Amino acid sequence: MAAPSSPGESGSVLSGIGLALSAYLLFSLQDASVKWLVVAYATVQLMFMRSSVILVICFISGGPRLVLEALASPHLKTLALRALVLLSAWFCYYTAARHLQLAEMSTIYFSSPLIVAALAVPILHERVSPFRWCAIAIGFVGVLIACRPTHLHEPLAIGMALTAALLWAYAMILFRQVAPQIRTLVQMVISNGAFVIVCGLALPWVWKTPSLREFLLMVLIGVMGGAGQFLVTEGIKRTPASVIAPLEFSGLLWAFALGYLIWGDLSDVAVFVGAALILIGGMMIIGAEWRASRRRAMERRAALT
């Protein structure tokens, strides 16, 4: 029998849950803000502004030495490749935002954990049980339902959202290869530094001077993105992964709520059914990982006795 958690441990877990939930709310608000602006501004300009603000936040938090630490990282090539993959993912996702509802975008995005589980076999050589394959299949059926035939007149937007999910999954696979050896701020500097450089090259051809209100909203997008990354990292440090992982799906609820509150979007039954199946598939994978981690822990304890 496991020992009961102490008040201090319980408080740490609860604070971690609060931090993670706050982070996913910020990410949803960030996506809603970008969707609002992307109608009038180029995706590249919004990404440049967002990443510039995040870099400033990183330098305030970690100082100039972060640049030297990033350049000296033994995993710089892998992280640079990941940055380019993420750049492509964000570009596809926010370009699709011009034509899709926030709930539709987010539903397709949440297929990325399922893609990670599938890609872990050929890339990381992980063994995936029949139960997990069943979960992956359920989730992908949800994606197909969410991308229903009524959107065949907008195949480019659907295709870009699906491409973004695939690219995010590949970026996660790359990060899992180096995550234990790299600080969060360092990977944030590398990723957002690459965003600023690449987007900055295209900026002279797409720049549109924003109004003061829209400029402040662009800055706020970066603040929300940077704060969200920091809060979710702190939440992970304080709370077991089996508790944190399901909380990410709260972002799906926020997407439906914000889409309705801001644009009056009422998603049809297909999107709700697709989102539910993706949620079920994701939770099945999380549950399988939780059981596997408990089994490994019990085996380690047994080996020590």
What would you note in describing this structure?
- This is Membrane protein.
- Keywords: Membrane, Transmembrane, Transmembrane helix.
- By secondary structure, this protein is mainly alpha-helical.
- The protein has one domain.
- Helix content is 80%, strand content 0%.
- It has 13 helices and no strands.
- Helix 1 runs parallel beside helix 12.
- It is globular, with a radius of gyration of 20 Å.
- The N terminus is likely disordered.
SSE layout:
Blueprint: H1 7-37, H2 43-62, H3 65-71, H4 76-96, H5 102-109, H6 112-119, H7 130-146, H8 155-178, H9 184-206, H10 212-238, H11 241-247, H12 250-263, H13 269-304
Helix pairs in contact: 1-10, 1-12, 2-9, 2-10, 3-9, 4-8, 4-9, 5-12, 5-13, 6-7, 6-8, 7-13, 11-13
Low-confidence stretches: 1-8
N-to-C CA distance: 16 Å
The domain tally reads 1
Mean pLDDT: 84
Transmembrane segments: 12-30, 36-59, 79-96, 108-124, 131-151, 157-175, 182-203, 215-232, 244-263, 269-290
GO cellular component, one term: membrane
Keywords: Membrane, Transmembrane, Transmembrane helix
Organism: Hypericibacter terrae
